[in-house]
Specification:
It is built from seven helices and 14 strands. It is α+β, with helices and mostly antiparallel strands.
Length: 260
């Protein structure tokens, strides 16, 4: 079944990706109508909605008994015990501003995960065999052994108060690492961390659809994925790092390592 699930995930991600790439390359206005969600800076476009419809159409056809959780559509109950978690366009702000850093994320929880970057035509995937790949070639995470030379990615929320607290954490992390990257797509950050392009990643306020596929990729390559509890005015989040310096990163984030 898992091979079938991965085939479905790839087909759904590629269908959404083809639609999004066409609109992205269409220039200003091609994304369609734009509206705000949680805050004036949290936007959704008609392109997001169309991409999710494309994904759901494939899931309805090929996996009609499975549940679906998506960022832009209603939750769908299932009877199979399996649930798909999909983000049709992770990095909407980048997409709308013409910045080529966005992707499609499709996962069947705890079974398969796909992050597809349509502009680079890069497909990150992990299947039942637990092997994470990029376009079929095995991924290898960073082997860096110390936080001081690590390139660390993060992201920020949409609410001003949350951003203020996130800025305080960045102020602690930045002097202790090689540098910080904020690219604007949690799913791609996770995929790039699994691929060794980034050494570590953390973010408060991520949603299940942001991380469902990417965390599977990271675990498959031996990275530690740690849930960050909500505290101190910050929502829950995750941190991903090599075992060698994961605890040190968690300390900077103000979250003790499990069992620590």
């Amino acid at each position: 079944m898992s091979d079938e699930l991965l085939d479905v995930a790839v087909a759904a991600a590629r269908a959404a990706g083809a639609l999004l790439r066409e609109r992205f390359e269409g220039g200003p206005g091609a994304a369609g109508a734009i509206s705000a969600k949680s805050t004036p800076t949290d936007l959704v476009s008609e392109a997001d909605l169309a991409a999710e419809r494309a994904i759901r159409a494939i899931l309805r056809e090929r996996r009609p008994d499975d549940a679906i959780l998506g960022e832009e559509g209603d939750d769908v109950a299932g009877t199979s015990g399996l649930r798909w978690v999909v983000d049709p366009l992770d990095g909407t702000i980048n997409f709308l501003f013409g910045i080529p850093q966005w992707c499609v994320s499709v996962a069947c929880e705890d079974r398969v995960g796909v992050v597809f970057d349509p502009l680079r035509d890069e497909l990150f995937a992990v299947g039942h065999d637990g092997v994470a790949t990029l376009d079929g070639a095995p991924l290898r995470a960073s082997g860096r052994g110390e936080l001081a030379t690590a390139l660390v990615a993060t992201g920020f929320g949409y609410a001003a108060g949350v951003r203020e607290r996130q800025a305080a954490i960045v102020a602690r992390v930045l002097p202790a690492v090689r540098d910080i990257r904020r690219a604007g797509s949690a799913a791609l950050d996770l995929a790039w961390t699994a691929a060794g392009r980034l050494d570590a990643y953390y973010e408060f306020g991520v949603q299940p659809w942001d991380i469902a596929a990417g965390t599977q990729l990271c675990r498959a390559v031996g990275l530690e994925v740690t849930a960050l509890p909500a505290a101190d005015g910050l929502p829950a989040g995750i941190a991903v790092a090599p075992p060698a310096f994961g605890p040190a990163l968690l300390g900077l984030l103000g979250r003790a390592a499990p069992g620590g």
